[in-house]
Amino acid sequence: MALSRRHAMHLVVLAILLVFTAFFFVPIIWLFLAPTKTDGQLLTESPFAFGSLSTLAHTFHRIVTYSGYSVLIWLKNSAIYSFGGTALAVLAAIPAGYALALTHFIGRRVLLAITLVVMIMPATALVLPLFLEINKLGLYGTIWALILPFGFFPFGVYLTYIYFSATIPKDLLAAARIDGAGEWRVFWHIALPLARPIVALVGFFAFVASWNNFFLPFVMTYDSSQYPIQIGLQQLIGSTASFNPANYSAGSSIVVLHRPDLAMAVIIAIAPVLLVFLFAQRSLVTGMLAGATKE
Amino acid sequence: MSVPSAPAVPGERIGRRGSRAVGRRERPPAGSSRTAGYVFVALYVALLLLLGIAPVVYAIYLAFSNSGGAGSAFAHAFNDYRFVPAFEHILEFMAIWLVSQTILVVGLTLLLHNQAQRVGAGFRFIFYIPGALAGAASVVVWLFMLDPTASPFAFALHWFGYDQFNNTIAPGNLPLIFAIMAFWTGAGSWIVVMYGALNNIPHELIECAQIDGANAFKTALWIKLPLIRKWVVYMLVLSFAAGTQLFVEPTVLGSAALGVGVSKYWSPNQLAWFLASQYDEFNQAAAISVVLLVLGLAVAALLVWRGRLFEVE
Asked: What pLDDT, in 10s, does the model give residues A113-164?
């Protein structure tokens, strides 16, 4: 009796977990299958049916060539903004985190406290104030309006601070200093080679945050040629017949997109971040839990 | 992005509150110079001043320097007929999102923690993957999921009597829809965080409870839950701060169906942007962003100084 009750409980738990697996995973499976089908097939066939590779190729071609290869331009813009922002974030965060953890200077604790506050505060809270400032500075519409804010990454500073606090003994650095190594040499030749994992981690987080950002580029760009792919996706919704039917009349010369095309665009847009998630999952999780096991 | 997919998770305490280092000045490490510290933080401090502090100061200046006198930008913003509804919308959204996220994330984490290591890891990975689709991508995915003609969840939409996309995104449904989107992208990351926190609970403690006759349910309720309570509070407070900033979801959803049902000023951030971009009302926009900023700052300061989740020494 006790065994069967336990068995029943186990089945209930499994059922709950499977329901949530469906909730989290079905949209992703659907998304990857949609471009293999035509819009008509999406309505008539099973949501989990695979269409054909030729339809997939056709859909891919349609979305890539759409409106003068706009998707590729948006991808290029996303890459410039994200890699530029990530490079700046790493350049600023690694030495700063190192200094906060392993050097001493007046104002260090205040800087750490401010870093924490800005890190916890939702980044979106700064977007409109940033827009007003960037507008005033005359940087509106330039790549710096995005690269500079993406490069300001207090979370990276905090991660680096935790990493250096936890992994590098102060005695090691002190010994090097006593042996005559200057501060720059200590950082470059001792601390940095030990910090490769955190450089990668800060890079991953900064890249994902920049690539997925919508609000900042939404307010900082004004022309389609400047859009990153996230804003491009929003533009594509406007061209998708099933979501905006009134935009298109029969016989119109405007190229109309369909649901499979939009799904393909989403896959292209998320591909870089999805790859990071899949292949760097362990690192990302470690970062999210950074220091959680530290006493 | 208005609602974070991956929380910026703190480390546990760095050092211990009340340790000897607190309250007195530390000596510099042997041989190190203060100048070096300044050089290493210089670039970050420059970015912090230019992109963290200056915009806040400028927004406050704009909000208070309206030609109508100090505070008039706030008065204009508060009296705008769109201001109160925008805040009502996000409050409704947050009520649904925060309650459901808290119950489901904690519940799912506790369930996963009772599974075999490999099984739990598999589920956690699946729950975590939608985090990669944060931003506009997740909203587009949910456009498909909410379209009764093509969605794999069409059967559920039909149960509720929704046969057309426009029925699904009726104005009354929007807070729930945005809560589902936010939960879908963010819950997995929080489950990973909570799971990590649960793993920090000493195994002996759980074994003792089991020896004393506590079953899995009682162990979860009386041992595990109290020990991860601070993380639950952290999730709630951080999500509250993020929820007030809602922008991408209503903006992208508004692009579909010619924006029927989703106004351009559904959330406070949208309203602030609408005023700035459509009417050049920078002072009013600044006033609204200052209100949102104060909310975000208050929450952050509360967590840092009162929450005791972080240590600055």
From this structure: 899 888 877 788 889 889 989 988 999 989 999 999 999 999 999 989 988 8
pLDDT beyond 70 at A284 = no
Say which of A116, A178, A293 has its CB closest to residue B304.
A116
Of A104, A219, A266, the CB nearest to B141: A266
Asked if residue A230 belongs to a domain, the reply is yes
Spans of all domains in chain B: 81-306
Which residues in chain A are closer than 8 Å to B111, comparing Cβ atoms?
A: 13, 16-17
The CATH number of the structural domain formed by B81-306 is: 1.10.3720.10
A91 contacts in chain B (CB < 8 Å): 43
Domain span at A258:
57-288
Q: Model ipTM?
A: 0.88
- At A136, is the secondary structure helix, strand, or coil? helix
Report the predicted TM-score, pTM, of the whole model to 2 decimal places: 0.86
Bridge partners of A257, per DSSP, are: A240
Q: What is the CATH number of the domain that holds A262?
A: 1.10.3720.10
A224 near A208, Cβ under 8 Å?
no
For B241-265, the pLDDT digits (tens) are: 889 889 999 999 988 865 566 888 9
Task: Give B12's contacts in chain A (Cβ within 8 Å).
Answer: 291-295
* Closest residue to A149, CB basis, from B51, B111, B256: B51
Counting the structural domains of chain A, the total is 1
Task: Test A266 with B188 for CB contact under 8 angstroms.
Answer: no
